[in-house]
Design brief:
8 helices; 218 residues; globular; 53% helix; 5-stranded parallel β-sheet; binds thymidine-5'-phosphate; alpha/beta; Rossmann fold
């Protein structure tokens, strides 16, 4: 059976992990194939180690290029150990972030340029891209307020960045979304959680090849 690759994107504080958990709980039982839930940076033992290095607030001297290369390195390992085997096994893949995060955060947020960051990521992924991407749209100031409330004092290195950085990232995402309209679907993530989850489920149900779904008649 053909695999299907779905990624979730959004600014920090968009509630992605909770949304993904609930979306998968609703969709999982209706999938004819096995599925995999994974995340970036991470999704394999080595990639999780790289994640710790990237997000450690002690690494405040990390250059923008090193950061971009480490995200790409983690992604390359994630591809080799997790994503490519899942594609070969015909699984449905749900990934919390993928290349679009690098384009927005490193390409625009860190001023490295979308084109340069795309090139190193094409090398890391051999050009494998999600079939569908859900962008959880939340204004950066709202996302940062949520993080400040939930994780005060425990923010990681990226979350500790100023609002101006997160605003640049948000504009970066808008550029990426604009250029990939067929693949990226935007959802208002400032709505109550249950509505955000139901909007995501509707979109996935629309785009997921029907032969991968079972027992879903409403
Ligand atoms: P998370 O909080 O969604 O787990 O992501 C960790 C942080 O890493 C988040 O601030 C977004 C950032 N990030 C990048 O800057 N570039 C990337 O390529 C990825 C995957 C994440």
């Amino acid at each position: 059976m053909k695999s299907y690759f779905i990624s979730f994107e959004g600014p920090d504080g968009s509630g992605k992990s909770t949304v993904i958990e609930q979306v998968v709980a609703q969709i999982g039982p209706h999938l004819k194939t096995q599925y995999l839930v994974t995340r970036e940076p991470g999704g394999s033992e080595i990639a999780e180690k790289i994640r710790q290095m990237i997000l450690d607030p002690a690494n405040h001297l990390m250059s923008a290029k090193t950061e971009a290369l480490l995200y790409a390195a983690a992604r390359s390992q994630h591809m080799a150990e997790t994503i490519i085997p899942a594609i070969k096994q015909g699984k449905v893949i749900f990934s919390d972030r993928f290349v679009d995060s690098s384009l927005a955060y490193q390409g625009v947020g860190r001023d490295l340029g979308i084109h340069a960051v795309k090139q190193i990521n094409d090398f890391a992924t051999s050009g494998i891209a999600p079939d569908l991407t859900i962008f959880l749209d939340i204004k950066p100031e709202v996302g940062l307020r949520r993080i400040a409330k939930e994780r005060a004092g425990q923010e990681d290195r990226l979350e500790q960045e100023q609002l101006a950085f997160h605003q640049k990232v948000y504009h970066g995402y808008q550029e990426v979304n604009q250029e990939n309209k067929a693949r990226i679907k935007v959802i208002d993530a400032e709505k109550p959680l249950a509505e955000v989850v139901s909007d995501c489920v509707k979109i996935i149900k629309t785009y997921l090849p029907q032969e991968l779904l079972k027992d879903w008649d409403e």
